[in-house]
Specification:
- There is one protein chain.
- The chain is mainly α.
- Helices cover 77% and strands 0% of the residues.
- It is elongated and about 45 Å long.
Amino acid sequence: MIIGENKDQDLHQLERFVKPLHVHGYVSNLWYGALRSRYPYDFILYAKKYNKTSEGYKDLLAIAAERVNKLYAAMNSYLIDPPNTEEQKVEFDRIIVVFEKLLHKQNAEN
């Protein structure tokens, strides 16, 4: 399985990694880390869903929140200083799409 090839499968696997107390195995931990990195907001939602409050999860949640906040900061900077180049416009569009999905997912959870 290639990460990013099928988002639904990725999110299902990420949820399966979050459910148990521990993830066992070197490759599984690498896979879990890559999924947490690619889908930080979903990781935060799954950790809340399964009430993951240990010290290790607090650190992982802080890292995921930092990634989401960086995305938010990038969006803020583009709102203040609109994108000029084609590359910036593409990045801004990607950020907007990600935030729309996150807002829809958050509304569905509540």
